[in-house]
Amino acid sequence: MEDSRVMASEILRSFEIHVFSKIGKLPHDEVTLHVWLALIEDVAKRTPSIGARILTYSKRAHKWAVRRGIQWAGCE
After folding, report:
1. Are the C-beta atoms of 75 and 29 separated by less than 8 Å?
2. Residue 44 within any structural domain of the chain
3. Would you tell me how many other CB atoms lie within 10 Å of the CB of residue 55?
4. Using one digit for the tens of pLDDT, what is the confidence trace for 31-75?
5. 4: buried, middle or exposed (CB in 10 Å: 19+, 13-18, 0-12)?
6. Domain residues for 44?
7. Which partner from 34, 59, 62, 67 sits 20 to 30 angstroms from 19, CA to CA?
């Protein structure tokens, strides 16, 4: 269980550094596939493992929210 907590903190930190700082204030519907691709490709050029981590966990989070019918901030 402790390993998963360590991994969760690493994932969160990756998102804080590379995702939230770039697109964190944008509404969900304004972040297009092209925005995500540019962000992930930029990160992957410098650190491929972090780029892969961001891609994997952003896809997982999005699928999780869609399955539950979660509406995004700012949506009605």
Report:
1. yes
2. yes
3. 17
4. 899 999 999 999 999 999 999 999 999 999 889 988 998 876 554
5. exposed
6. 31-61
7. 67
First and final CA of the chain: distance in angstroms?
37
**Total number of domains in the chain:** 1
24 token code pair: 């964190």
CA distance 16 to 27: 17
Return the structure tokens found at 40. Answer: 């992930």
DSSP state of 56: H
Residue 52 counted as domain residue: yes
Contacts of 22 (CB under 8 A, 6+ apart): 39
Map residue 47 onto helix, strand or coil: coil
Is 7 a residue whose pLDDT tops 60?
A: yes
With respect to residue 47, please indicate whether it lies within any of the assigned structural domains.
Answer: yes
pTM: 0.79
